[in-house]
Hints:
single chain, Rossmann fold, alpha/beta, 3 domains
Amino acid sequence: MAVGNETAVKIASTFSWQDVSMTVQKGKKQEKQILSNISGSLSSGKVCALMGPSGAGKTSLLNVLAARIRSRGTTEVTGNITLDGQPITGSSLRKRIAYVMQQDILVPTQTVRESLWFSANLRLPKSYSMKDKKELVEKMLVDLGLVKCADTYIGDDMIRGVSGGEKKRTCVGIELIMKPKLIFLDEPTSGLDSYAAHNVILKLEELASKEGCNVLCTIHQPSSEVFHLFNKVMLLRSGKLFFFGGVSGLSEQLHAVNKGCPNEFNLADHVMFLLQTEVEKELDNMQAKMIMETPAAATPDVPHDKSVMTKTMEGATAGFLTQLLALSKREAQNIWRDKPGLIASIIIPVILNVFFAAIFYQVGDITLDNYDPRSHFGGMTQVAIGGMFGAAQPLLLKFPLDRGIFLREYATSTYGSAAYFLSKTMVELPQSFLNAVITWTAAYFLMGLRGQFMVYVLVFWVTGVAAASTAVLVGCLAANAEVAQQAAPAVFVPQLLFAGFFITTEQIPAWLRWASYLCALKYGMNLNILNEFGCILGPA
């Protein structure tokens, strides 16, 4: 099936790299060699395993070849990396590269089909119709063996969902939507049992052969069945190429240096054991001989020709409005499907606000003999402070927890940062307004307040949105959720000090007084006081 600008004819493609090296500066005069003069090539339809002991440079090489690590700061990368003879630079060529991370970072409340559709809807060119996109998603479900779980939630620790193997294949499918020429995978079998791992690699091998793409993945301790699914194996040792060739070629090379694998052993385990137990001098001799006897290490499998560069995904992708609507729908869907979180967000504010209002019962009734303006003011202050922290706390951890999803999707140009954050705001506004209505329905009537009800609601709403926005900013700047929690008091406690509750603004030292203008709580409380005591609208 050919849709949009997709080319129906599969043309041979060659991915090659020559003399790839990477060094990292450590101190003024020290530098560490991570990779050293590594060369090789892959032709279309091939699946290559990248293996080596811990610290051999597997992930570094994968990231360099995928153009995710470049010369910058203390890191220097050299060498030539080409696809069909053209350097992998610029957005047009980068769109032909897919990278699947080791962690399966997905939205737990989305189904498998929805996850694939989200990627297709936002990443495919505008030349693809809605029908084309849906057909491509359904085809991907069939190709990856995900039809049976297509409408099952991805799931996480709290939500029951698909298996680890199905989740990994979903991650692969999200990237394959773009029909890439190169697919890089970091530990695709990590955390999977032998059967699930075999399924993942088998599907990759089938897709590589069917779609004519190049697949390179790091892998750790594959089973014998999985290992023999790979067309090629690249072994690294201490940042240098130890072997590059077919699986059968590896076995022959080991026998040639009298280190053959016994029949009852797994070849992958055997070679990894050798790399970590043999003495350095012996390994150096083996390494020199095996590189010399690897004919494909520096020579492409097939000659490349610039004329075969096909633009499989040419054209502009989704616009800002499409991104905004898709992100808003996903965010609202996420909130609605998270039933425990949704119920808690409604029930907890009701219970707390009824409790607080009961403590300050009828403090605003000036006709009572025991009326005290301090209690009157204290009740209103409590509602304002509770609203600020209630709005900020949930969103404080929102971005740190969602950062992995955002970075993965942003790195693949699925959407822009403006659409992402605006969608969060659009979904948060109705929630904040509902919370404001719930809060003041309890506080207004139980506390016996006199001001305009809707003024209280609107002030509370705007103040809550300001607090939530501040919390999102803190979450974005924090390295992780723990840092965000530790930084929150430094941002929100000063709001109490400068809001005029405990000390008037005039009494604050002049050199610190400017900070009061940054406190949304101050403005919200001032409006509430004016509303309550009739300075704006008059007596109720």
